[in-house]
Amino acid sequence: MMRATLLVGLLVCVGVSTLDAQAVCPQPSAFCADSRRLMADGALQEQRGSFIQGIVHTGKWLTAAAAIGFTVMASNQHGYSRREWDALMEICRSASDACLVGQDGRYLRADAEALYQRSRHYDVLANRWLVGAQLSLVTTTALFIIDLNAGNGPENIPYPSQIRVGTVGNGAGFEMRFAF
Q1: H-state helical runs in the chain
Q2: Residues near 67 by beta carbon (within 8 Å), at least 6 away in sequence
Q3: What's the maximum distance between 2 C-alpha atoms anywhere in the chain?
Q4: Residue 157 pLDDT exceeds 70
Q5: Residue 137: is it exposed, middle or buried by C-beta count within 10 angstroms (0-12/13-18/19+)?
Q6: Element housing 44 (H / E)
Q7: CA angle (13, 19, 24) in 5-degree steps
Q8: pTM check: above 0.70
Q9: How many percent of the chain have pLDDT more than 70?
Q10: Cβ neighbour number for residue 116 with a 10 Å cutoff
């Protein structure tokens, strides 16, 4: 399961390369990095985009994939921790004195202490993966916001508008303009 998850994550992060004949795509993305657009008459038009916009556009998908991968890894580590904890609970249920704790806070039985330490170790690893997932998610959100309006607004809105709010005399004013 873990190998399959890592393989899928690697394929998503690396992307899929295309042949030159297949490279024309309507919009550059993580899977299609060609900067040409196919026009209505069949001709190719070069898009003028900056290097930073390309990094932001592709980076948001890579960080989203990283957030998903880190969350899956955290889930795996939590499963390992839960397995060790369940084994410790089985030992504790087996006898009334099986889970006695000494003066230093450690279990008196060596096998119980080893299971407890392994469970804690996997929990720490799961927490680290979750922090990585959260940081990736914050970065993804920031990149989506940066890429949201790269200057002109999205092409799929037929009537872009402007909204202004301000003061008029002693009150508030609201103005909305539509471009046709």
Answers
A1: 2-14, 51-94, 110-148
A2: 133, 134, 136, 137, 140
A3: 83
A4: no
A5: middle
A6: strand 44-46
A7: 90
A8: no
A9: 56
A10: 19
